[in-house]
Amino acid sequence: MIKKTKFIPGESYVPVSGKVYDHGEINNAIEAARDCWWTEGRFTKDFESQFKKFMGVRYVSLVNSGSSANLIALYSLTSKVFGKKALKKGDEFITAAVGFPTTVNPGIQFGLTPVFIDVDLKTLNMDVNQLEKSISRKTKLIMMAHTLGIPYDLEKVLYLVKKHDLWLIEDSCDGLGSKYDGKLVGTFGHIATYSFYPAHMITMGEGGAIITNNPYIHRSIRQFRDWGRDCWCDTGKDNTCGKRFGWKLGELPEGYDHKYIYSQIGFNVKLTDFQAAIGLAQLKKVQKFIEKRKENYKKLYSFFSRYPKYFSLIELSKKEDPCWFGFPLIVKKEAPFSRNELTEYLEKHHVGTRNVFAGNLLRHPAYLNLKKKRVIGDLKNADVIMNQAFWMGVFPGIESEQMRYVLTTLKNFLSNYS
């Protein structure tokens, strides 16, 4: 194992997130370096295969980040292969007002109109009661995240997806390992996305994945990911189709090299084999990581549940089983202290905190002058989260000693108000 730095209470920082690793990741990265291949290679293939098994899906495509995963997921649905269902400029997509920008940005960048709905304070996810009334004849897509790994009400969402013939992209970047009604989130929609940034359940440093069970969507994902090319050969492979010089597409001459025929206006967001090698070692630890996150969450829940006058905590149905990205809570208006007073105290005493991502996205400079948008209601709950909510770390690197210090620090702060 990698030698750990000694934790010194009051001096060492307890971060909200971070990477947990041993020699497995380092040895894999060294082996990838020695291969001298470096772009997508055998580690990428192995990771995709293992991730398919873990998720129970047919197709996995790796990319360089979770944000790129969202970008490619959305653009893949613009392909003409989907006929009338293909996304086109001016179509609407429904999303939550609270979240991370790159859940929303791809739709805006393509030219879709975002429809923002408020969230439920019990789960920090979109308010499903607002969902149906937000659907119009222009709506083609629902794209939103499972906030902090908390599954949204997939039963109601899927009912509306089928009723109105919509696409569903599950942004599961925070939700690897979370379950709804006993089934992994990310396996309900047409597409799901994942992030492997160090803050997430497993890491490649940077990295992401897109999953689907639909072969047409999978091919479109690969096209948009790989420069927009029509060819489906893996990196370093030629003539997978058996007729590399036998195609007649577009206005190109017959027999033009299929490796250089482009059917989409695409990107290049592939990752390296170094990243996949690190991720492969991480994937072997994912079940232990999930268990540790849940264990840390329970410790914080047990503490904060003693102060119902001060804090609102997450309330789950029996169907929701999160792999917690963090421990979220809302400081009540009637509390004798504010969110900022508490988080500033924690940070001053070397305990990390984070706001719930962007809070109300529509309050940010980038979105204030967004001309094409629809907003359902007054987003009052999004404002509550913006002003009063935050989250604390539960990641596997927070061990018993660190957690004891966190709880002691919280107790010291709250003793001033008992």
TrEMBL record:
GO terms for molecular function: pyridoxal phosphate binding; transaminase activity. Its cofactor is pyridoxal 5'-phosphate. It comes from the Bacteria. CDD domains: AHBA_syn. Keywords: Pyridoxal phosphate. Transmembrane segments: none annotated. Pfam families: DegT_DnrJ_EryC1. SUPFAM superfamilies: PLP-dependent transferases. Coiled coil: none annotated. GO terms for biological process: polysaccharide biosynthetic process. The keyword tRNA processing does not apply. PANTHER family: DTDP-4-AMINO-4,6-DIDEOXYGALACTOSE TRANSAMINASE, TRANSAMINASE. Belongs to the DegT/DnrJ/EryC1 family. This is Lipopolysaccharide biosynthesis protein RfbH. It comes from Candidatus Roizmanbacteria bacterium RIFCSPLOWO2_01_FULL_38_12.
